[in-house]
Amino acid sequence: MLDNKESFKDYLQKEKKYSLHTVTAYSNDLSDFEAFLKQDFDQDSLEDVNYSQIRSWIVSLVDAGISNTSVNRKISSLKSFYKFLLKIKRIQVSPLLKHKALKTPKKLQIPFSEKELDNVLNYIVYPEGFEGMRDKLIIDLFYTTGIRRAELIGLKVANVDLSKGVLKVLGKRNKERILPMLPVIQEQIRLYLSERAGLEEIKDGEFFFLTLKGVKLNDSLVYRLINMYFSNVSEKVKKSPHVLRHTFATHMLNNGADLNSVKELLGHSSLASTQIYTHSSLAELKKVYGDAHPRNQK
Questions:
Q1: Structural fold of domain 4-87
Q2: Which of 156, 168, 177, 242 is catalytic?
Q3: Which of 115, 164, 172, 287 does the annotation list as catalytic?
Q4: Which of 85, 224, 262, 295 is most buried by a 10 A CB count?
Q5: Confidence class of residue 276 from pLDDT cuts 50, 70 and 90?
Q6: Structural domain boundaries in the chain
């Protein structure tokens, strides 16, 4: 019979479908904590742990110079392990029930420039036929609506209303919101749907975006295509769907949209989440201010 650690690894691989790399990382974090318990508390069991012991491990990691981000990742591994123990009824309460993650510096997302978006949408050559039309529409939809990757992948044909020019998307915590579409997007959608109807086989017909084989898109495919097309026009290190969402928000703010409207379009529950996008518009504001104010004239 497998012990709890081995059962957990089995669960991550077979039920959660995690990669071998991720499973190894989780396993290593558990082993590190187990070694700490043995050394500092002369304790072998991971099941009888209390939060003060975990807190002692956190302190020891921080004292050893481990970054808050890395510490949070290790604790995330523990959280998953104790959730698993709850699931299989080996414990009654997780020792991490009331744990709050350590604060980490927010990573500054660098948006694409308007020039880069113009180049990727108007000057690079897309493949002929269905895939090229789909790929360009995906990029344009990210840029003109600020839609999340999961929302785009989960978009249903029934939720694309060309007569009203809107999309209905299902966001985080199953919260629905309505996104307006620009006329240029509506026209692209009509052309895309015409090409889509000509696919040899359609297996996941309820979903709007499909592969050439007629099945629903996946996360890695969408990430790869954004990375591939933007590699032709941008030298930025990070080229992803989230950077496109960030670009949408930044360009909207730079061109006069108010913060609350952008919040609603992005589907944020609070303005605090939207304010991370204001750094770029602030930089633009400073430039305009510096160029225009008489006291700054040479």
A1: DNA polymerase; domain 1 (1.10.150)
A2: 242
A3: 172
A4: 262
A5: low
A6: 4-87, 114-290
Tokens of 121: 């949408």
For residue 173, indicate whether it is catalytic.
no
DSSP assigned state of 156: B
DSSP 5-68: HHHHHHHHHHTS---HHHHHHHHHHHHHHHHHHHHHH----STT--HHHHHHHHHHHHHTT--H
Out of 148, 149, 239, 251, the active site residue is: 148
Assign 88 to helix, strand or coil: coil
3-state SS, residue 241: helix
CATH number of 114-290: 1.10.443.10
Percent of the chain with pLDDT over 70: 90
Active site residue 123: no
Which listed residue (196, 245, 246, 263) is catalytic?
Answer: 245
Tokens 């750094």, residue? 279
In single-letter form, the type of residue at position 184 comes to: V
Residue-wise pLDDT tens digits, 193-227 = 999 999 999 999 999 999 999 999 999 999 999 99
pLDDT bucket at 4, cuts 50 / 70 / 90: confident
CA distance 141 to 157: 15
DSSP-derived secondary structure for 220-232: HHHHHHHHHHHTT
pLDDT tens for each residue of 47-85: 999 999 999 999 999 999 998 989 999 999 999 999 999
Mean of pLDDT over the chain: 88
172 labelled catalytic = yes
Which of 144, 121, 148 is CA-nearest to residue 133? 121
- List, in sequence order, every beta strand (DSSP E) within the chain: 160-161, 166-170, 176-180
Active site (annotated) includes residue 90: no
Calpha distance 183→196 (Å, rounded): 20
Which secondary-structure segment (H or E) carries 117? helix 114-122
